[in-house]
Amino acid sequence: MKQKLVVIGNGMAGMKTVEELLNIEAHRYDITVFGNEPYGNYNRIMLPPLLQGSKTISDIMIHNFDWYDKNEITLHCGANKTIVQIDRHKKQVIAKDGTVALYDRLLIATGSLSTTPDIPGIKLEGVMGFREIADVEKLLSAVKTPQKVTIIGGGLLGLEAASALQNRAMEVTVINRSAFILNRQLDVHSSNLLKEHLNKQGVAFELSANVVEIIGADHKVKSIRLDNGNVIDTNFVIIAMGIRPNIELAKEAGIRTNQGVVVNDFMQTSDEAIYAVGECIEHDGQLFGLVAPAYEQAKVCAKQLVGQQNVVFERRISATILKVTGIDLFSVGNIETDTDCQEQLFVDNQLDIYRKLIIKNQKLIGAILYGDTEHSHFYMKLISDNVLITPFRNQLLFNPPEIA
Q1: Residue of 7, 80, 81, 390 with fewest CB within 10 Å of its CB?
Q2: What is the pTM of this model?
Q3: Strands (E), 132-188
């Protein structure tokens, strides 16, 4: 008789686990999936192109409803199907509408929530997040004519949203607490290149600034006041200040949590019948906000679910890849230097190309590529495999060799 696997979360990490499981042993489990959005599994990374209009909802679907039917997966989706309780004693989950599903194995893949600042006016009409298809649809319905949009957050999501909205002829301002944008992925020089490029496209910036108040009239957003005294008129505010693991459900069930749902090398929680993957987890004190490690976790979890217990999750270095209005950008590893590091630099302001390689103890430990990312996979491999670069160090910046 088949065992029952229940998955809480219909996102990329959870469904990658199911996909891997089906590839290994398709008939091991009766699988039931709960998702709080009324869709199949879609590529969340593609929300900016969806907002821009270059992609449709069907374009960004990874698994449509037919895939679930074909693989005999029971899918409960929509707001009323949100799981509100995990009963570990009875080994069951309960949805908002009362739907109950029993499990032998449970997979928590609840993802993350947007970080929301605690400032006056945050609940005014016109203030919204940018994490789901519903957010995009809400924005598109609101901005049918040119509007003023302010984005709080100068990270990956905020900049991609800014670019998408600017392409729709919106008047966009990005507010960032740091003195430069993408400050976790770029150095000052490459950040300034990107800022200048976006400036030319029409995006304005307020840097080293914090929002102290969102001002409204008739319950709608009218302006934003910053701690530098500036007041920005705006019709909409998008919160893009990062994410935090969605752990409340696990926490309430008595599963061990810290910043995230704590898992071991097998993607197993403190309850041996319950596993977790993706942005909701914490492994060895680290959180994960990128797709690559989530997919690695999914592969390990799937193998664990079929009894391949010799497979464990190992953290690997992850890269940041961004494509904004024609600019290719790649950042990986340690981009901060110390006295034991050396740098190799190439700057061509006319072609808007910037390369920075950081070397320590004859090994590449970090790289920033702006405008030309042709050799990004090579640099990634050098860092991931801890390769000695001594034999080809003089070729590293311009003509790197092929390595096995």
Answers
A1: 390
A2: 0.91
A3: 148-152, 171-176
